[in-house]
Prior knowledge:
- The chain has two domains: 3-68, Winged helix-like DNA-binding domain superfamily/Winged helix DNA-binding domain (Arc Repressor Mutant, subunit A, Orthogonal Bundle), CATH 1.10.10; 72-114.
- By secondary structure, it is mainly alpha-helical.
- It has six helices and no strands.
- α1 packs antiparallel against α2 and α5 runs antiparallel to α6 (98-114).
- The protein is elongated, with a radius of gyration of 21 Å.
- 15% of the residues are buried.
Amino acid sequence: MDKNVNISILMDFYGQLLTLKQLDAMDLYYNNDLSLSEIALELGISRQGVRDSIKRGEKQLYELEEKLGLVKRFNDISKNIDIMNSVIDSLQIADGDKEKLDKIKEISKGLTKDL
């Protein structure tokens, strides 16, 4: 996966655990595609300060994922739900079982939404 996408995903899961300064700098860099100089002007700090803040934030995000594994768990659950939906769609059902199968599909959609 592309580093920028990976960092953005980690920020979605763990961003609130970063300092506000780190989160702001990383959001402007990864999600708004601003340069370090542009971010420095926006935040009123030096370009080096922006770079240091982003690097510390990246390190924290990777460490949090290593310890907690929420992104991996989310991806594993999503993949299993997709497999379950494929199996459900491939089933040949008798007329009486259609209601049960529809209920399973509804639960599956709810699980996906809850993730």
